[in-house]
């Protein structure tokens, strides 16, 4: 063998060893990530924010994005990921004598940070430090990671996940999350007992909110009729007074500058965290923005509509290439996606499909739907019948997946439609039987859970809910306007 050939062979072997140990490092740190982040999960878990729906929703969305970030780092061949800004509401988990100066009176504080690390271990450290949480338990993990970087002759350390002893919580002053959750479940009241204790407060709050509710309905109807709006919605579960203020602000703008709102005709307006147009084509008005920013957005609506038309065209082209499968975007399944970002995702996916033409009958997948996601590596089938497809999915691999999973997707889609029809019927029955003013649910409550809950409520027939607004959730709560939040799996 020549010297050059021997040199090339040596280089290939070294590269192979380096790739192997980088994969070992990722796998090692990824396996321990959940244990290492337990103090963090304990401080931000949505179940501990039952009385604060907005903060609970923020933490739920941020946790989904963080988990996606960590999953991307563990994918084979992953080199780098896009920086991600996250916001969490962090509970104080220490004794009251050691409260932090930025702690809110409600018992938690807001923390924002940006992830830009390229391995799981550094990401976990970044999260813990950003939230001012202990990192002493990370020393063992860091030592193991350093060992994994050593030459292959040194051997790979034996993997064993961390199991925290009860003394850890005694030493650090933190409470055991598993123990606290078990205690919370044990003290959960029955529905009848909770209603007896909280119905007076709910009725009082509801009565006090009636003038604001009437004003809210009047303003919404007036604005929809005056500017031919399809609907007015809200991204978050703001109170009635907050929603009234938002509509009053839009009404003042319409009186001061009626020409500015002409471009809104036919649109659905959504009061949200930021202004723009979302992937569904709805006009988002940032609740923290001033009238000048709203007016500027209204002036840009013609260009947004042009972008929406191009988006619809891309969806039609993709549907033709994929046997009639429709690309959909469900806001309730994830964070709000701007129309520009949605268009970019569709464009990348369309170009990828055009690079290698597929052989699918034009109507072989008619009636099926798919969601596109940038942070996935493999296609999957959602329990509700949607295909979940990576934007950069290999076209031949995609064709095989769609054809092989089409029968199951149709069954699940049919089951979803049946559940939705059954849910509508049982909700209507519950409204009439219990004389409720309204009955809704949180997006995280499935149709099957809602059906079971409503059937049990009809059997219970509690008169204490009569005339109230009820929302089926995962926790008990009396909202500021008298709405009742009930867990779908309430105890009888």
UniProtKB/TrEMBL annotation:
Q: Where is the DUF4460 domain?
A: 26-133
Q: Which residues form the DUF4461 domain?
A: 189-491
Q: Which GO terms describe its cellular component?
A: mitochondrion
**Record-linked InterPro entries:** DUF4460, DUF4461, TCAIM
* Protein name as it appears in the record: T cell activation inhibitor, mitochondrial
């Amino acid at each position: 063998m020549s010297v050059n050939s021997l040199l090339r062979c040596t280089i290939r072997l070294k590269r192979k060893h380096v790739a192997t140990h980088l994969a070992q490092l990722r796998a090692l740190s990824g396996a321990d990530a959940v244990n290492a982040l337990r103090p963090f999960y304990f401080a931000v878990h949505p179940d501990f924010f039952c009385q604060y729906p907005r903060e609970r929703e923020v933490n739920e969305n941020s946790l989904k994005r963080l988990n996606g970030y960590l999953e991307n780092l563990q994918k084979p061949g992953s080199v780098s990921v896009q920086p991600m800004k996250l916001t969490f509401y962090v509970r104080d988990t220490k004794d009251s004598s050691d409260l932090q100066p930025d702690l809110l009176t409600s018992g938690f504080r807001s923390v924002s940070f940006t992830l830009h690390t390229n391995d799981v271990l550094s990401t976990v450290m970044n999260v813990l430090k950003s939230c001012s949480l202990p990192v002493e338990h990370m020393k063992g993990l860091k030592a193991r990671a350093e060992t994994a970087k050593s030459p292959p002759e040194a051997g790979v350390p034996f993997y064993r996940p961390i199991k925290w002893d009860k003394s850890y919580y005694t030493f650090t002053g933190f409470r055991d999350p598993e123990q606290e959750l078990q205690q919370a479940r044990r003290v959960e009241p029955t529905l009848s007992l909770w209603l007896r204790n909280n119905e007076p407060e709910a009725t009082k709050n509801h009565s006090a909110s009636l003038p604001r509710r009437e004003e809210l309905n009047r303003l919404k109807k007036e604005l929809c009729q005056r500017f031919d709006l399809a609907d007015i919605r809200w991204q978050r579960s703001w109170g009635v007074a907050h929603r009234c203020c938002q509509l009053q602000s839009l009404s003042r703008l319409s009186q001061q500058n009626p020409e500015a709102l002409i471009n809104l005709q036919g649109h659905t307006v959504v009061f949200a965290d930021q202004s723009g147009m979302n992937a569904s084509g709805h006009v988002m008005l940032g609740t923290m923005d001033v009238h000048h920013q709203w007016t500027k957005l209204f002036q840009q609506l013609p260009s947004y509509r042009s972008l929406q038309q191009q988006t619809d065209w891309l969806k039609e082209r993709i549907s033709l290439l994929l046997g009639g499968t429709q690309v959909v975007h469900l806001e309730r399944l994830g964070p709000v996606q701007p129309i520009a970002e949605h268009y970019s995702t569709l464009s990348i996916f369309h170009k990828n499909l055009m690079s290698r033409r597929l052989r699918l009958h034009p109507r072989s997948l008619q009636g099926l739907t798919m969601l596109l996601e940038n942070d996935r590596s493999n296609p999957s089938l959602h329990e509700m019948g949607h295909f979940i497809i990576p934007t950069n999915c290999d076209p031949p691999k995609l064709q095989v997946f769609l054809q092989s999973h089409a029968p199951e997707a149709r069954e699940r889609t049919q089951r979803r439609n049946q559940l939705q029809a059954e849910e509508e019927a049982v909700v209507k029955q519950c409204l009439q039987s219990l004389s409720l003013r309204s009955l809704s649910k949180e997006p995280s409550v499935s149709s099957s859970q809602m059906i079971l809950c409503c059937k049990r409520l009809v059997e219970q027939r509690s008169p204490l809910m009569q005339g109230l607004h009820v929302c089926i959730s995962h926790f008990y709560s009396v909202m500021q306007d008298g709405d009742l939040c009930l867990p779908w799996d309430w105890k009888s």
